[in-house]
Design goal:
Layout (H helix, E strand, L loop, with lengths): L3 H4 L6 E5 L5 E5 L7 E7 L2 E6 L7 E4 L9 H12 L14 E6 L2 E6 L4 E6 L9 H18 L1 H16 L1
Antiparallel strand pairs: 1-2, 3-4, 4-5, 6-7, 7-8
Length: 165
């Protein structure tokens, strides 16, 4: 049987400190004080900064439907959308051996993942005829593939062997 006092209980957030002599002090968080700052939401996913005194953190919660055809890609898209206005200090590049890194064209191979990654960037202010520049980059890609054919063949032969199992 529950009492009226138990029915009207209230949950309170705060900070508890436990001392060596087993004393406990509890400091409730002030009413209305937000724990999540700069909160952004897309669907069920969210991104925010915490108000922790010791260690403020950025937190991302990514949620996609279980029946999504490509849940990882959808999560990456949502994270990119949630953080698009935040500056980044480093280039997040694919991992692997760099075959080409010149003029907005980067080509990587990753033996562990059996992948070839091609990243093309075209600055339209310096290359107003971007179609022509892209064709030139495609020629560079084919040239790279021709030069590196022996190592690329190892990737495809290893992939064929693993698919036979």
């Amino acid at each position: 049987m529950t009492t009226k006092a138990e029915e009207k209980s209230k949950k309170v957030r705060g900070t508890a400190e436990i001392f060596a002599d087993n004393r406990i002090t509890f400091r409730p968080q002030a009413e209305g004080e937000p724990t999540q700052l700069e909160k952004k939401k897309i669907g069920r996913s969210s991104f925010y900064k915490t108000t922790s005194e010791k260690e403020p953190q950025y937190v991302a919660h990514l949620s996609v439907p279980a029946d999504s055809p490509d849940p990882v890609a959808q999560m990456q898209e949502e994270l990119a959308e949630l953080t698009k206005d935040m500056p980044t200090k480093r280039d997040i590049s694919p991992k692997g051996k760099v075959l080409v890194d010149q003029g907005g064209l980067r080509i990587y191979t990753n033996n562990a993942q059996k992948t070839i990654t091609v990243v093309q960037s075209i600055d339209c202010t310096t290359h107003p005829n971007y179609e022509r520049f892209m064709l030139q980059q495609m020629q560079e890609i084919f040239k790279c593939f021709t030069i590196n054919q022996p190592s690329l063949a190892k990737l495809t032969s290893a992939a064929k062997k693993s698919s036979r199992k």
